[in-house]
Amino acid sequence: MIPHSKPTIGTEEMNAVSRVLHSGQLAQGAEVEAFEKDCADMLGRKFGVAVNSGTAALHLAISGFGVARDAEWGTGSKQFLREFFEGKHGTYKNFFNDILEPLFYEALRIDRSHDDDYYSKFNCKIPFLNGGLFDPINNYDWVHTDILIPNNLFSNSDKTKEGDTGTGILDV
Question: Phi and psi at residue 30, in whole multiples of 5°?
Fold first, then answer.
């Protein structure tokens, strides 16, 4: 097992857990509501949403992809990345280099709230995800470095042993 990190748990954290346990509300409740408000205030946003994991946060963020400039969040296609791969939102040569790197290192990383989160390269709104998650490691120069991952790694027409079509990341 690879150790991830050693938690630091002090009196403040123990008291917070105790408040939740004594409230009788292990999901949602006043503590979660206060946490969401504190996060939103800290980031200068109207709302904050707490979820149970980073994976859940990414799933929530993906539901915001592809929203038209003047539309409400959540109205974008749930198949936005698949549609992008299929060329329905523009052309590209290499999906990773031309689509995914700008999505992660620019669209999700840079606060564009001054322009209603509109990302002109993709002609839609893309949510800003704060916290350094998408900061390039060691100042990686993604703009001037081409990493050409084969497009068929993302989607292909290979047959699985179960008879399904596609073994790429977007096919699963």
Answer: -65, -40
Rg of the chain over all Cα atoms, to the nearest angstrom: 20
Classify residue 67 by its DSSP letter: B
Nearest 5°: the CA angle 165, 58, 109 is 115
- 60-92 pLDDT, tens per residue? 767 668 889 999 888 888 888 888 899 988 889
Full-model pTM: 0.69
CA 60: distance to chain centroid? 7
103/71 Cα distance (integer angstroms): 20
Q: How far is CA 78 from CA 14, 65, 71, 135, in A?
A: 39, 8, 15, 25
Q: Which alpha helices (DSSP H) does 63-100 contain, by range?
A: 80-85, 95
Backbone angles phi, psi at 159, to 5 degrees: -90, 135
Q: Does residue 78 come out as left (phi exceeding 0), alpha (psi in the -120 to 50 range) or beta?
A: alpha
